[in-house]
Amino acid sequence: MPEPIQRRSLLKVAAGVTAAGWLWPGGTAQAAEAGTTASQAATAPLDTLVLGDSASESAHGLTATLSDVVTGGLEQAARVLNAPETAAFWGGTLSARLACRPTGATYVTVKLWGSESGAELGRLQLFAEGEQVGHYHLGAVDPLDIASDDPRSLERFFYHTLPLPLDLTAGKSSVALEVRSMGRIAGYASTADEYYKDMDGPSRTIYRLYTHDEPYFGTAADDVTGALPAPATRTSPGSEIVGTINTRVLAQASAEAARTSAQTELWYLDFLARAYHMSSTGAYQNIAVPPQAARSLDGVYWKYVADSTVITGSTQQWMGLGRAGLVMLGLADDLKPLLDEPVLGSPYGLSNPGFEFGTTGWKSSTWSGSGTAARDTTVYRTGHASAKITIPGSGTVGYTTSAKLPVDQGTYTYGAWVKTDSTADNGACLDILFYNSSGTLVGTDNKFYASSGTHDWEHVTATLTTPSTATQAAVSIRLSGAGTAWFDDLTMTEPAGSAYTPVTRRSAWAKMLLDSREYWRQNIPQYTNQAIICSIGLYLADRGLSWLGSDDAWGETKARDYLYQAVGLVPWLGPENEDGTPTEPLGGSYYQVTKKGISKELGYAGSYGELQEWLSFVYDAVTVIGGVEDGTLRDHLVKMAKARAVFRYPSVDPDGYRTMRLETMVGWRDTEYPGKVAYDQDAKWDGHALKMAAQIKDPDLTSYAQQSLSEGQAFLSLQGTYEATVSARTNLNLLSTADDYAYISTATGSGAQLPMTAGAPDFVFSDEENGLVAIKHGEEILFASLYWRARWGVNRLARVHHITADGVERSGTVWQDVKYVPDGRAFAEPDWVNWEFSAGDLDIPAGGFAPPGDTLHQAFAGQVLPLAKAPDDAPERDPGVESPYAGRASFYRCAYGPYLIAMNTTDSRSYTLATKGFGAATNLVTGATVSADAELCVKPGTTVVLRRG
């Protein structure tokens, strides 16, 4: 199919078109046409506003409200914007007029001090000609600044760049710009009042605003940037934090094992099941643990019966009740004897017939004389307990069911296993009594005696027809006369067809697992982390069903296929219809993970794609808990973890110590910059710095974890996890810390360091399926997402994060040139300012909640986004419906400073990259020298990275 530009409503699409079908918004491509090199064009900004400098402010007609002039970082003049006197979301403003280009692109860059931190600094939002530029949350063009808890660039200034809409500056030589301060945003809030937070105090300090016409902003010689601090190695906290963590989790393990009431928080049940197998804990092989787990799973069942939304609304996220299946598998041998007993709380049948749950369901009685009735955990037939009755002289003592049990007409069989020591004739017995609906005894006792004397376990049974007037029965176990008797494993078998059939654990637990599995297989979410979590739930629920002997179980192979789909080993087929037919919402050949091992959504997923904790859980579910060795799956999980390792870069922590950070600036679902400290796994609710490496034991991952130990950051990360809100989830996460540390600190790794570590070899990582590039050139680093938040159509925008060798950071959203195969349709950007998307599954208006105050308008509203053609097997989606295909271009050409990146995302055709206007360069992929006027062939599925200088 030819690749012409979509010729409709072009005013807001592009500034230049050639017969070859390029879309470009000006800048590099136009400069090349005019014979002007990009390096020449990028040497100076169009205009600079120096805030706090009266001459510059006057020259630009600055108007400021709620603003103070301050002396900021490195003694530079600047301004802050203050919160209003009456608490509100919007604060101070800065308005000025700066030069722009009448044709082509104009960018706005802000200069900020990288040592400032704290979410209470709020945000800075750019306006141009009175219209808001971009969106607050996950828009292709984001706010001018989003403050974070960690400093962005310690002791240095950093620069963030936004593009202005092309038509907004068309024909103009200057543009009215405004910076507004605002409070924080709570991204998961369910109401506007919760979403928009009032300003807490002054904004981040603002130093300069620039306009320029090249994507890369080059600083002038007199523009102070600061120096990279010489990082030291962190020495505190040290390994003592491991002991501190262990003390807490061991105490919690003992507390959970000693609990006598149901624990319906599945994270703690998981915690308890794991602690049962850890010799360091008080729960280790503790006889109280299996019955406590059974009691709690019974509680989960009744909770589900009372409210079926437990499947969708629980803290297990998209996992449903899958973690209940994990608990069953983790305690399988010990829970098996309890499966065919009635669920505790079942109105029919004997409750706690083996006295595993203390004396729940029973009351002690003394009919005559004296004696003792107690639970005995030293003598038992099955499980870990029995009822022990001792009479020293004479009397009749025993236990009776706490409540009378409803019975049908018909024949019941009652039974008990009895062990005796020195009992008299007619001593130990099973006694059945019947009552009418008024509670009046019908007839007399029905006693069935065990043998006298001393003997091992003997089965005493009674077959009784319910009297015609009886509606209830009580079951007693008694001892008359001197001696000792133990009772265990009582039974009460109802006649066929009884209306009073007790709910057994086997059937009850199977029902809740099946219902959870069936709901979530029909509602599997698309985003990678969600799909993986959901597939773990499906897998564990089905493994639980198999263990319970359910005819509805799929079996290991089919259950594991859902995991294979979620991690990209086979195509992802999406939610299923009720009959099991996949809906294939993205076609039959869409993979959740790229061939390079990166999660695939609307581009690199950053922190939300930080899947290590869930990848390790996949391995845990299949191999550790499930007992299935799958080398293909393990190798693939390791591949994914290593691919993510590229996206850690050298930085310093808030205290100035060297560290590695997770790259989030080019993450399409991220709004927190910089990313968290991360070597292998960052500090999460469900993972910690050492967990995955210790579990999977890959030599490279082990060495990455050892790097975090040698640089002291693993201990700080563990301390942060320890100091987080104490909960079932965090305690489960930390349970294995001591064991994980013991392994990592002594294991033999490969010796590898994270790829971006200072001094490591240069490389280019490109992921053509994701439009993603990571480059290390000496100590200079560039991350670029060429497929950037293009959920509705081809937007020609790229996201970049550049760190120079001297530590100066630049980031921003910039125009680029693209080719794509059109599907003949287009979508115009809505006039939304909060979200650039709608959320059909949430009770939130399209575009998110409107901000407080006057109605605002989007500067990019009306921009036409042409749709790229989806694969032939993908169902057609209407324009304006998010799609991972609509905005993916076939070919990207992105020029940024000394870099020219050309990426071919197709698997079947080649493209030509013309370097005219860029200058002589080195191909960093091959090492070859490229002349100033070369034409390079970019083959299918490959990337060319040129660098000048």
Total strand count, please? Answer: 42
| Count of separate DSSP helical elements | 21
Backbone structural class = alpha+beta
The main pleated sheet reads as: 9 strands, mixed
Q: Note the gap between the termini.
A: 38 Å
Radius of gyration: 34 Å
Shape: elongated
State mean pLDDT (0 to 100 scale). 93
**Helical content class:** 10-25%
InterPro entries: Galactose-bd-like_sf, TAT_signal
Protein name: Tat pathway signal protein
Explain what you see.
InterPro entries: Galactose-bd-like_sf, TAT_signal. This is Tat pathway signal protein. With 949 residues, the chain is α+β, with helices and mostly antiparallel strands. It has five domains: 10-36 and 762-823 and 870-947, no CATH class; 43-212, Jelly Rolls, CATH 2.60.120.260; 246-341 and 506-592, no CATH class; 362-502, Galactose-binding domain-like (Jelly Rolls, Sandwich); 608-746, no CATH class. Helices cover 23% and strands 26% of the residues. The chain contains 21 helices and 42 strands. The strands form ten sheets. A nine-stranded mixed β-sheet has the order 3-14-8-12-32-31-30-29-28. Strands 4, 7, 9, 10, 11 and 13 form a six-stranded antiparallel β-sheet that branches. Strands 15, 18, 19, 21, 22 and 24 form a six-stranded antiparallel β-sheet that branches. Helix 15 packs antiparallel against helix 16. The longest helix has 21 residues, at 528-548. The model is unreliable at 1-42 (pLDDT under 50).
